[in-house]
TrEMBL record:
This is alpha-L-fucosidase. Its EC number is 3.2.1.51. It comes from the Bacteria. Alpha-L-fucosidase is responsible for hydrolyzing the alpha-1,6-linked fucose joined to the reducing-end N-acetylglucosamine of the carbohydrate moieties of glycoproteins. GO terms for biological process: fucose metabolic process; glycoside catabolic process. Belongs to the glycosyl hydrolase 29 family. GO terms for cellular component: lysosome.
Amino acid sequence: MTEQTDRIQEAHEKRMAWWREAKFGMFIHWGLYAIPAGVWKGKRVPGIGEWIMYRARIPVREYEALAKRFNPVKFNAEEWVKVAKDAGMRWIVITAKHHDGFCMFDTKLTDYNIVKATPFKRDPLKELSEACKKEKIKLGFYYSQTLDWHHPDGLGNDWDYDPEKKNFSKYLEEYVKPQLRELLTNYGPVAVIWFDIMTPTPEQARNLRDFVHELQPETLVSGRVGPWREVGIADYREMGDNEIPPGKVEGDWETPATINDTWGFKSYDHNWKSTGVLIHKLVEIVSKGGNYLLNVGPTAEGTIPKPSVDRLREMGEWLKVNGESIYGTTAGPFPEMEWGRSTAKPDKLYLHILAWPDTGQIEVPAFDREIKKVYPLADPDRKSLKFRSKEGGTVIDLPEKAIDPVDTVLVAEIE
Ligand code: GLC
């Protein structure tokens, strides 16, 4: 390695440190699409809420008119940050500009932004950055760098604009970059710029990444700035939406996920996953080495839907007891077990019992270390459970019943 690649690697390791510990973050999809909330001209538009402009091929002039109606007077940055904090989430990523092109921040590059085009007139990103600073939660921005259905040179809108006439490099240089500069200058430290959909060419992707890192060396660049396989473009790999890989994945990665079936608010999507399912997904992802970025889609009034708030609060309650088995851990040493999953720290193994067995015991496959002591994480006395080795592993006798029916965590001290 040359000195330069050493330095690049060092900078990357440095900016990844908090993220590797953090494991659980909040995604927020909020924009004009919260007004139609999945319905356009009286008809339900299928698909995810923030894609309504595209799915219904809404002309720019018609969609723009939503801005005059956007007045989320119930928005309270401190409340939102508290929801994230109580859930045990360590960072927030909010849509600064989604594919519809509407800017949820104060920008000089277009009047099509929340401060200039709406009766609300406030900059929610600014308010969130202040609330996050106070609560020591990190804040990052989703920014759609490729698709922009409002800007004539952004990609994706072929019903208002002729795709042949688009000048995408001009859009990148004269619009995307100056906006990124605003986001990386006016809001304090930015945890991540969450690019999406992929930049058309690897050169453009690398160029955007370097631009971000020059402005804020500590800001992470998400996997979808370019194809993750292109070694070294992004800081970490982004899985597909709601995608959980079948087994352990090496390297840094994240699963962005929904609580119901949409990112942006839809009035009629009530398909909420249960708290138990969400905790299992968190454990599953962390047991395979990943981070979980779980989405909320606030309404046009500025509130996070109650079903989301309730579930997040319950996740936070579980994490208050069991957080040690999540934060700062790495993937467990063995693959999916019938009874559950495992996460690890250098001197401890966490056995997450997701399906309590009738047999009263679990079998832990042999791995390269020896188990010294086993106790339930929720037991303040750390009273040891009985265990014995047998061929190919260790058998642990469980307490009479599950301490938490969703996930009872055992700690195995290892040598
Ligand atoms: C997809 C969608 C987008 C959403 C994102 C979240 O790429 O295009 O609407 O923001 O997934 O992961």
